[in-house]
Amino acid sequence: MTTQTLVPPAAGDDLLVLGALRASIDNIDHELLRLLARRNEVARDIGLAKRVTGRPVFDAGREREQADRLSLLARELGLDAHLARDLGRLLLRGSFASQLEAPPEPPPAPVPPDSDAFRLARCEPGRPRTVVHAGSARIGGGLFEVIAGPCAVETRDQIELAADHARACGVRVMRGGAFKPRTSPYEFQGLGLEGLKLLARAAHARDMAVVTEVTDPADANAVAEHADMLQIGARNMQNVPLLRACARTGRPILLKRGASATIREWLCAAEYVLLEGNPNVVLCERGIRTFERETRNTLDLSSVVALRAMTHLPVIADPSHAAGRHEWIAPLCHAAHACGADGVIVEMHPCRDSALCDKRQALSPGQLRQISDALQGLSRAG
Ligand code: PEP
Ligand code: MN
């Protein structure tokens, strides 16, 4: 057996070594992208050949053979079998997309009836869909976004660790409550502005944007100095002074649905923001109050489907506050994607047993990873 001795770099050389290694991994990534672009061109030609010869795009036998060959090669190369399988699926999906002819343009959406009360928010022929920018995320831009972070900012260590995990999961927008609107006044109310500064430092240092709730119109400007997106919570959906104050900061707004608000009332709330000259509103379905008690709220995914037809604004879902239990969140995220949502916002805590807020619904970092591996960056369905 041979043993390798790693000689530690001399002082000052360590950064040089790291820089060289990073440059070479960047080169490999760029080369992979160039290869993918070439692969897409070949897939398009295959699509053309199939059309000319009258063959179907999908060939189950060929797909199986390709997957088996990839797994075999992965094993020979000492690569993780899951990685090979996931990569194979991704490549096949890309091939199908490239082989299909561009679908015909959908007919222009009709104006929803009786929609004057939300005339800026409604769909109209020729009115483009809104894309909301938050850091590097483009919510409504066609790719599914997984927003994540703890319910509340608790300590510097907690939020730094949460940010490490969120970043490792590919999260681009991190959530965290600093001003917490708790049901009971005896519960943890959040760290306020100091908490928000901790969140902003942790997220921005890792190239993530920040979304956090504002509960008082007087705080809107101060929060907007540190956060990239302002959340208006379910309890405040119809708080008009708060809607106006947040809108005037110019920051994008994440507008949660009130627990007993109709879709129309929710769109009218969004209209208040638009009317202030702030076009950047993301609607968030977080569950409504029904007779059901096994879940915390009832996630009304039919609202996501209805909103697609009624408004040009992007729509995301919050399965955490709907399910109330971490083990039920992943399937609801998949369901939200299937219904055409532009993303989800979920709660994750690095050590959920010690969470000060909503511990029962906090995802572990591992659970978040499974959700983001499956959904982050997928094309929006529908
Ligand atoms: C939250 O997101 O932290 C929150 C309190 O959610 P909601 O307003 O939907 O209850
Ligand atoms: Mn919460």
3D architecture notes:
This protein has helices at about 15-55, 60-75, 80-100, 155-170, 190-205, 220-225, 240-250, 265-275, 300-310, 320-325, 330-340, 365-375, and strands at about 130-135, 135-140, 145-150, 175, 210-215, 230, 255, 280-285, 315, 345. The chain is built from 12 helices and 10 strands. The chain folds into 2 domains: about 15-100, Chorismate mutase (Chorismate Mutase Domain, subunit A), CATH 1.20.59; about 115-375, Aldolase class I (TIM Barrel), CATH 3.20.20.70. It is an alpha/beta fold and about 375 residues long. Manganese (II) ion binds near residues 151, 321, 347, 357 and 358.
Tally of DSSP helical segments = 12
Biggest sheet details:
8 strands, parallel
Level-2 CATH architecture of the largest domain? Alpha-Beta Barrel
C-alpha end-to-end distance: 57 Å
Rg, alpha carbons: 23 Å
Count of separate structural domains = 2
Q: CATH superfamily assignment of the largest domain?
A: Aldolase class I
Q: In order across it, which strands form the biggest sheet?
A: 3-10-9-8-7-6-5-4
Structural category: alpha/beta
> What characteristic shape results from the CA principal axes?
globular
Q: What is the element string, with H for helices and E for strands?
A: HHHEEEHEHEHEHEHEHEHHEH
* Average residue pLDDT: 92
Helix content: 40-55%
β-sheet strand percentage: 5-15%
Can you tell me the CATH topology of the largest domain? Answer: TIM Barrel
Bound molecules: phosphoenolpyruvate, manganese (II) ion
Pick out the low-confidence regions.
none
CATH class assignment of the largest domain = Alpha Beta
- Strand tally is 10
